[in-house]
Amino acid sequence: MKPSIVRSANLQDCPRLAELCTQLGYPSTAGQLTRRLPVLLERGDHAILVAEVNGSVSGWVHVHVSPTLEMDQIAELGGLVVDEAVRGQGVGKVLMGRAEDWARRNGCHELWLRSNVTRKEAHRFYQALGYEIIKTSYTFRKHL
Questions:
Q1: Alpha-carbon span 111 to 13, nearest angstrom
Q2: What is 5-128's CATH superfamily?
C-alpha cells in the first residue's frame, strides 16, 4: 500500500522513528531520537521525511546536501527505512522520489547513497530506481 501522506518528521514521531532505526540495524530509543531530530530539522540543508500508511509512520528518509571541495554539491542519503510489515508495497519508492525532488530543489544534480555490501535486497531496490554502483570502499571509524 502506498503512503497516504509524506511529510516532514516531527518530535511526536520519535518513538516510531526509533523503532524503524532499530529495524534498519541501528538500535535507538525515543529519547535518543528526541535529542537528534531537532538538530537536523533546524538545518536547512537536511530533510527527514516520513511516510504514513493507514495513519501510522511506516518509513522515513533522511537526505542532506553534501558540499565538498573536490566536486560540485551533491545530495546524500543519510538513511532510508520502511517498516518490515509494508516493504515491497511502494513506500520506499515514494520516499526516494521525494528525496530526489528535495535534492533538486536544493541545487543538487546527483543523489548519492551508501549501502552495506550485505544488503542485497536494498541494492536491487536502488538499481531498479536507476541508481548505479560507482565504487566500493571501506568505512573507517575511530572512537574519540
A1: 25
A2: Gcn5-related N-acetyltransferase (GNAT) (3.40.630.30)
Amino acid at residue number 64? H
CA 22 to CA 28: how far, in whole Å?
6
pLDDT digits (tens, 9 = 90+) for 35-54: 999 999 999 999 999 999 99
CB 30, CB 15: distance < 8 Å: yes
Q: What is the pLDDT of residues 52-63, one digit of tens each?
A: 999 999 999 999
Is the alpha carbon torsion for 132, 65, 116, 80 positive or negative? negative
Q: CA angle, corner 102, sides to 75 and 82, nearest 5? A: 85
